[in-house]
Amino acid sequence: MSTAYWCVLIAALLPYLWIAVAKARPGYNNRNPRAWVAKSDNYLVQRANAAHLNAFESFAPFAAGVVLAQLAGVEAATVNALSIAFVVFRVLHGVLYVGDKPLLRSLSWLGGFACVAALIVLAALAAGR
Predict the structure, then answer these.
(1) Percent of the chain beyond pLDDT 90?
(2) pLDDT digit string (tens) for 84-118?
(3) Nearest to 108 by CA among 84, 87, 129
(4) What does R_g of the chain's alpha carbons equal in angstroms?
(5) What whole-number distance in Å separates Cα of residue 104 and Cα of residue 60?
(6) What is the extent of the structural domain holding 11?
(7) pLDDT score of 19
(8) Which of 14, 96, 115, 120 could form a disulfide linkage to 105, CB 3.0–4.6 angstroms apart?
């Protein structure tokens, strides 16, 4: 199960990777970073910030899914595989968001969402036995 836990850590760190991409631009103002991002007309800054926010949104359901699946006794290999797939989809999601590839970005989002849904459904089914 430790693989899934490492994936939770990676997923927790992804938002910070994307905001680092956003803020690694000329003119970044650390005195008021949120206002700087909000006022920026740099397309890359806006897209990386959106990836940052979306990574935060996806983290809680994923972490909950891993914990629920573990507590319900879902096979560790299954939880690990879904966790790895989630992280791969989410890294791709951020790369595709920053790279402005909307269809592929949406498909990677869907893949990550499917992993979370599978973790929670498997947990519910295992808990019902």
Answers:
(1) 84
(2) 999 999 999 999 999 999 999 999 999 999 999 99
(3) 87
(4) 16
(5) 23
(6) 2-127
(7) 94
(8) 96
Number of domains in the chain: 1
Q: What is the mean pLDDT of residues 50-79?
A: 98
Higher pLDDT, 49 or 1: 49
Tokens 């949120």 appear where? 34
Q: What is the dihedral of CA 105, 41, 53, 3, to 10 degrees?
A: 60
How is residue 116 written in tokens? 């979370």
Res 1 pLDDT > 70: no
Contacts of 123 (CB under 8 A, 6+ apart): 65, 68, 69, 71, 72, 74
Token pair of 67 as six digits: 């914990």
Full 3-state SS string of 36-105: HHHHCCCHHHHHHHHHHHHHHHHHHHHHHHHHHHHHHCCCHHHHHHHHHHHHHHHHHHHHHHHCCCHHHH
Altogether, the residues listed in the chain come to a count of: 129
Q: Is residue 54 pLDDT above 80, yes or no?
A: yes
- Provide the 10 A C-beta neighbour count for residue 24: 11
